[in-house]
Every structure is written in structure tokens, then in C-alpha cells.
Write a structure and sequence with these properties.
mainly alpha, Arc Repressor Mutant, subunit A, Tetracycline Repressor, domain 2, 2 domains, 11 helices, globular, disordered C terminus
């Protein structure tokens, strides 16, 4: 194995072990053994386990975020600044859900890792959110605000987080949906899954606005513009 191949080999090994055992269940030495390299080489490329964990998720999130931004931009351009809520939600959800089903690109491990860290307050999880997830979240909320111009920023942000929770549940690789539906539901039918989730979340956003018909203040409007 060449020196150039080492980082990718380490990332692949780390991704597998983190997904199987969780962040705290894996050491750099175990990752080195899985990658069949010296632990010193792991430390040469990645300063510590937290940095390595961020790199594992960062390389997957970068692909998803690129696709999501392309779709959000397309939705804005087609709508001339007044996008349909369903179109924005689909642009947000579809890249992640499709990737989570792509086993050849590590989608299953990615789904497991996202489920592990989605509500984890520990530094390694918050670092991933801060560096990789929060920027795209702000962009998505910005476009959602154009689809729901009369929903205040605070409520809109909560609704976005509720959407993330639903998405993480939908992409779960546990297969629980098969069990509780007595095999009627197929989690790999992404066409049905995405349409159902978009419809469900659209209703949630609309019902929330109907119940809390508040309008943006000057401060929240400025915050939305700056995000």
C-alpha cells in the first residue's frame, strides 16, 4: 500500500469500527489493526481520534451537502424566489436518504453514525455538527423561510430540527420498520419512503403555522438574512 492510499484505508477502517462499536468503543490502535497499518501512520495523518471521527463523517457529508446545495439552488431558481415547501423539503431530504441506501459508498455505516451522534452532546459529535452540518442547516432554513415567509424564525428552526429527527429515523439501518409492520414496509423502497416523508413533514410545517401564526420581527428577519 502506497503512502497516498493510507489515509483512505484508515478512514474506511475507522468508519467500519465506529459504526459497529461507537466512538468510545474504538481505539486508534484497533483502527490501525483493521487498516493493517502502524498506529504511528494513523497518528501522522490524524492528530487524534476526534479528528479522525470528524474526517470519517466529513467525507460523506461533503458529498451529500454538495448535492443538497445544488438542489436547493435549483429550487430557488425555478421558483424565482418563492419555492414550494414540498420542493424544498425534497431537496433537503432526498440526497441524505438516497446516500444512506448506497452500500457501495458506505451509506449503511453513515446512517449508523448519524443515528449515534444526532442527539449526542459530547465534543466529538458537536464538532461534526458545527463543522459539517450546521452550515447546510442554515442554508436550508434560509430557503424554507422563502417557502414559509410568514413563519417566524424561531418556530421555523424548531421545525427544521424536527425534520432532521424524522429523517434520521427513516434512514435507520436497524430494519425495525419491517418488524413492526410485519414485513409490509420495505425501508429500501426509497421512492415511497421519500414521498411519504415529504408529505408527512409538509403537513407538519403547515399545521404548525396554522396553530402558531406568528410573523417575523425585524430582528428575526435580519437573522434569517444573515444565516
Amino acid at each position: 500500500m502506497s503512502r497516498a492510499e493510507t489515509p483512505e484505508k484508515v478512514l474506511d477502517a475507522a468508519e467500519t469500527l465506529f459504526a459497529q462499536r461507537g466512538y468510545h468503543g474504538v481505539s486508534l490502535r484497533q483502527i490501525a489493526q483493521e487498516a493493517k497499518v502502524a498506529v504511528s501512520l494513523v497518528q501522522y495523518h490524524f492528530a487524534n481520534k476526534e479528528e479522525l471521527f470528524g474526517a470519517v463523517l466529513g467525507r460523506r457529508i461533503a458529498v451529500i451537502n454538495y448535492e443538497r446545495l445544488q438542489r436547493l439552488d435549483a429550487v430557488e431558481q425555478r421558483s424565482k424566489g418563492q419555492p414550494e415547501l414540498q420542493d424544498v423539503l425534497r431537496a433537503f431530504l432526498e440526497p441524505t436518504l438516497l446516500f444512506s441506501r448506497n452500500k457501495a459508498q458506505g451509506g449503511q455505516q453513515y446512517a449508523q453514525l448519524i443515528a449515534q451522534i444526532s442527539n449526542d452532546p459530547q465534543p466529538h459529535a458537536r464538532r461534526v455538527s458545527r463543522e459539517h452540518s450546521d452550515p447546510i442547516a442554515r442554508q436550508t432554513i434560509r430557503v424554507l423561510a422563502k417557502a414559509l415567509p410568514h413563519m417566524d424564525q424561531k418556530t421555523l428552526t424548531w421545525c427544521y430540527l424536527f425534520s432532521v429527527g424524522a429523517m434520521v429515523s427513516a434512514m435507520s439501518p436497524t430494519g425495525r420498520i419491517r418488524t413492526i409492520s410485519e414485513e409490509r414496509n420495505d425501508p429500501d423502497d426509497t421512492t415511497e419512503l421519500i414521498q411519504l416523508l415529504v408529505t408527512f413533514l409538509t403537513g407538519g410545517f403547515q399545521a404548525t403555522y396554522a396553530t402558531y401564526p406568528t410573523y417575523p420581527t425585524a430582528d428575526t428577519t435580519n437573522a434569517a438574512h444573515q444565516a
